Amino acid sequence: MENRTIVIIAAVDIIGILASNTLKGNIYLFDNNKLMGSSGEGTENLKTKISFNPNENVVLVWNVMPLEPESFANISQITADDKYITIEKLKYPSSDVIYWKGTTIKPFDHLKYKLSITVGTSGTEYSCDLDIIGELAKDHAILIN
Amino acid sequence: MSQEITIIVLVDIQAAIETKSLKGNIYLMDNLRTDGSTGEGTGQLITAIDGSYWCDGSQCCDVVMNWLITGIGSLPITLPHNYYHTRSKHIEHEWIQSIKNAHLGKNTAKKETNFDTTIIEKIGTYSKLRTTPNKVMDIEIKSLNIFGEHFDSSQNTKSILNLLPPQISDITGSAVDNKVLFPAQYGTPVPIKDGWYWSATVDTSKTGLHNYTLHITLYDFVDEVWTPVELTYDAQIKVSNNPVRNGFTNAGLGLIPLMY
Questions:
Q1: Residue B106: inside a domain, yes or no?
Q2: HEC per residue, chain B
Q3: Is A64 in CB contact (< 8 Å) with chain B?
Q4: pLDDT in tens, A38-58
Q5: What is the per-residue pLDDT across B146-158, written as a single tens digit (0 to 9) for each?
Q6: Are B146 and B212 found together in one domain?
Q7: Searching chain B, which residue's CA lies closest to the CA of residue A74?
Q8: What's the total number of domains in chain B?
Q9: CB < 8 Å to A4, chain B
Q10: Which of A46, A126, B166, B212 satisfies CB 3.0 to 4.6 Å to B175 for a cystine?
Q11: Is domain A6-144 given the CATH code 1.25.40 in the classification?
Q12: Which residues of B touch A59 (CB under 8 A)?
């Protein structure tokens, strides 16, 4: 089955972050792959499930969404092992709105990554650790390793 | 003076369309966890609504709620509200330029024979929306992919199609029937939700748990036509007579009694 491009949304309670100076309890993560096995939707421990088809890179897109639409939040960095994934900061064309795009390089079982966010005009960076769980597409399980 | 409450409604559009249900595929969040809202980030959000009170404890005024709906897999709501239109215009402009350049280049005679077909191929057609089971109309936007570029179904896989964002079409339920919630759709200059959003005032004298129903329209891309899928979802508010809290000064999360 062809891979759906995975979109990951980090919804952030900016007032909560500024009041408590932490992402903990103030970030909710979602992706559009729960039907295929992602877990932890709506929590700060999202585990995004992806499946690898041979010769096909999986593309992931990250966006941030402030819970108060008038306030500002920004993904300042996403870091992961660059042996497995290339991560780029990009801009939607004809706009100033940033998104982050990840393209897998080779299959993996489990990839941890760090998502960093800045809010409002404060330059403080807040981070959390998240997971991508990989599996080989069922039809191609024989190709593992 | 009223407090504004924002409820973000996130829909896993593809999953909701595939399972024909919002159950398990909708997530609600508000900015009131500190006031006692529960179920943040789940489909079982109960929004805590504290009344505004005079310092003697008597009822002061109503509270305003706003709903913002978006899809996981749709372009983010942080983009300007006219983004679909401006992108469609930009894409057309770029294509017209590229056709002009090709046309003015070498082998003009050969290009000219294909000019009309090239133009239609390049400019493409507008997206189509099914308005009734038997009627399809053009809408003045092009289909985009999730990176904001033109989506061409002959070249792109559906996995990168930007799903049209869901819309709230009505808010009903016992909270509305019992005159706790007074919902309506409003226009806004703020760049969200295409200039429209749903809002409601709450009669905070009616304390307790109240149910309301969100009527949500999703758009499925069937044979190149955006086809509405109408679904509903039940949500709750819990109105209490706790005073509104203060989160904006160095006084901490204190209470705000209103002075006479």
A1: yes
A2: CCCEEEEEEEEEHHHHHHHCCCCCCEEEEECCHHHCCECCCECCCEEEEECEEECCCCEEECEEEEEEEEEECECCCCCCCCHHHHHHHHHHHHHHHHHHHHHHCCCHHHHHHCHHHHHHHHHCCCEEEEEECCEEEEECCCCEECCCCECCCCCCCHHHECCCCCEEEEEECHHHHCCCEEEEEEECCCCCHHHEEEEEEECCCCCEEEEEEEEEEEEEEECCEEEEEEEEEEEEEEEECCCCECCCCCCCCCECCECC
A3: yes
A4: 999 999 999 999 999 888 889
A5: 999 888 877 777 8
A6: no
A7: B78
A8: 2
A9: 14, 159
A10: B212
A11: no
A12: 160
